[in-house]
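#onboarding

Welcome to the new folks! Below is a worked example of what a typical request in this channel looks like: someone posts a single protein sequence, and someone else replies with the predicted structure as tokens. Don't worry about understanding the tokens yet, we'll cover that in week two.

Example request:
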Amino acid sequence: MKATVDLNCDMGEGFGADAAVLQYVSSVNVACGFHAGDPTIMHRTVAGALGCGVAVGAHPSLLDVQGFGRRAMRVTPEQAYDLVLYQVGALAGFCRVLGGRLSHVKAHGALYNMAARNAVVADAIARAVRDFDPALVLFGLAGSELVHAGRRAGLEVANEVFADRTYQRDGALTPRGQPDAMIRDVSAALAQAERMMREGKVRALDGSDLQIEADTICIHGDEPGAETFARELRALLARLGIAVCAPGHPNEVRSHPTFECAGKPLRA
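Example response:
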């Protein structure tokens, strides 16, 4: 059983339950305008997260607003590097002005999935993160090429798992275009998360069991019922005795309701 885990949520996309979910998570990944969001939304989202004591990360994407960053595109390593560096720098600027600091980087959508299996793209992303700030944590799909690239670049990495997504036999996420990609039954998603924490395993759609390392669990803020799921997941982790804290922030454990977020006490 793991002693700690991070709860992260993709935010700043212009919709979803951002403010409500903030009271339950320990880190957020803020859209940088290439797939969603804009400078004003970035500013507001970073301010809200910092005000709640939540670690702020950049969520860089392919330049694809119309496709929400989920359409695979052919990019060179140089283009991948530049895309990530540009977006990370933009979000870090808002963190600095607001008195905080950027904590981590998590690629979005198609870029994330490309980097999970393509070592060349993964290395380009890891180099961009390292060159901007080697203290940043790089999030990547658990066991993926992006995690390996981050380690090669000398970065701290966080293996990311998904309670509400299904897995393929090779450890990849089921593509969102398939009807069984999402787990929308809360009890089933919680059961998947519990097994990940207790056993380090997840069942793929074909019935096979996969070994999986879970440093951070993703919550999708744009899904219906996101606040309810976040609350239930925090309650599950509390029952398991697992503390919630952001990677790279071992002293910022938020597993008890003592911090005020937007006038509301955080809930375990």
